[in-house]
Design goal:
2 domains, homodimer, 7-stranded parallel β-sheet, Rossmann fold, 5-stranded parallel β-sheet, alpha/beta, elongated, 306 residues
């Protein structure tokens, strides 16, 4: 078996070592133009030339949860495209989102400002029942985030394309229930896949439906959010803050207003990092299953877009 | 039945209204010197005179979890002293502690500094397995905090006076296992009751046993921590940071070094606030049980000290 590795911006050696350890008999190499045909590919942001040459691939394993960039390329006709499921990412998402929600709910920024001003302050606690958190996207990551939030007893709502049932989460589904979901949420957490349907889904007319003084937490893709519309709603006071890990252009350009906006917290696309060992173990298991003709989870539907 | 209310620094009206609603036939009044004998008292930091006069009290209900201040007073001989159990406090503690632990683990302060410097930064993720969190005190609050931390897949350790078993938590007990517990912890969370045995429990020789670059989170009582010893260990670089909600003197004096220490985050005793409606409901239920001769939880053992 031949496995080719083509991951932009990723140090290949530890991945090669891990894959070779998992498949002692296989040839595992970094892809180079003109390389012989491989059976499986481990990829992140590969060039079109890669797929134009490797037309006989059986499995294409994306080392991330989002495959929006991959699906813009012309892919080999018979290849199964597979995304990472969890692989240590869902706990990171739960951490990131819970930290941001608690920070807003408990007004830790306000306390920090008080302390800087030398003030031993009293702030009336916010009411938990009036702090509903809506999670858009209820895949592996969204479900984990929603469940983590229920533990802190926030009212938790979920919205997804198809109907889901998650304990402790009030689930909405499809376009018909989207406005009801937004109006019932004070905090909006985005964990949707990026598809033509979800691009720009957070914009003036949708975000304006969140409860007054609401918050936006975007940990999915920058293109889900119309950035100037967020600024408009913050300026108008309709929204109170945003925590953003992803942006339309990354790295965020130096002149971008998000860098210094007092109500916006930004992080450099770090909410859930691909963990190498977990990912290698998961990909190795799926290659074995594919080779044995067994079913696997995480197969990308190129029509649906994720 | 007569219920007297004697809570320093607490607006009485809403408490009286809630207690009257719970006991329509009872007399519920704010205590004044010379008032007639009551059956039950709802108290927070009452003066000694209160107990010297109200010698016939059957139940004394403290509107907080910690009774250390109360037990310094001479109490009526036959009274049952009762503390609040949870009543909305455990979820607040879980929020406060999880927020602080995640903030340290995910280096959110470092990212914030990078953003202020205009830097789109890369930081190698910390290893979760190397970030064990030890919780001292495994009562209602400590257990809830420990369980909340397990959800984020940190190795969680617990230490308590008597042996406890909590799913997903490696439990240590008693003085004999205290050093083992400390040496196995990188983050130390304090939720102990304040008693003669636990006073000053966080001091140079104990905190120095935490894993290098460790953190202290104190949400119990200020007198658990020898404040100058914490400063020494931070200065030496043995500890990396502390999040403190309680202090030996509160409000924290203006000249105190904690106000401006770059590695110390302080909040004004706000980690878990008494929630009025939940507390009234709990106290009313316990008064009914006591009157009916039924057992209740939360009875304070004055010898043990909590």
């Amino acid at each position: 078996m031949k496995i080719t590795f083509c991951c932009t911006g990723t140090k290949p050696e530890p991945w090669l070592a891990g894959l070779r350890a998992a498949f002692p008999g296989a040839q595992v190499e970094v892809w180079q133009a003109g390389a012989p045909a491989a059976d499986h590919a481990v990829v992140w942001a590969p060039p079109q030339q890669f797929f134009d040459e490797q037309t006989q691939l059986k499995g294409i394993f994306n080392i991330g949860a989002g495959v929006d960039a991959l699906l813009k390329l012309r892919l080999p006709p018979r290849a199964t495209v597979v995304r990472l499921d969890d692989a240590g990412m869902s706990v990171q998402m739960a951490e990131y989102v819970c930290h941001a929600v608690i920070r807003y709910f408990r007004e830790f920024d306000g306390y920090e400002a008080d302390v800087k001003a030398g003030k031993w302050s009293y702030r009336k606690p916010r009411e938990r029942a009036l702090f509903p958190v809506g999670v858009m996207g209820l895949g592996v990551l969204g479900q984990r985030v929603a469940q983590a939030l229920t533990q802190f007893e926030f009212p938790v709502l979920g919205w997804s394309r198809s109907v889901k049932a998650i304990e402790g989460v009030r689930c909405f589904a499809g376009a018909a229930q989207f406005n009801d979901f937004l109006r019932a949420s004070k905090v909006l957490v985005n964990l949707l896949p990026l598809t033509p349907e979800t691009r720009d889904i957070m914009r003036l007319d949708t975000l304006a439906q969140l409860q007054a003084g609401g918050y936006v937490i975007n940990v999915a893709r920058g293109a889900h959010l119309v950035e100037e519309d967020l600024l408009t709603l913050l300026d108008r006071g309709q929204l109170a803050g945003a925590t953003l890990d992803v942006f339309r252009t990354e790295p965020l350009p130096a002149e971008h207003p998000f860098w210094r906006h007092p109500q916006i917290t930004i992080t450099p696309h770090t909410s859930a990092r691909t963990l190498r060992d977990e990912s290698i173990a998961q990909i190795a298991g799926k290659i074995r299953a594919l080779e044995a003709g067994q079913p696997i989870v995480g197969i990308v539907d190129s029509v649906r877009g994720y």
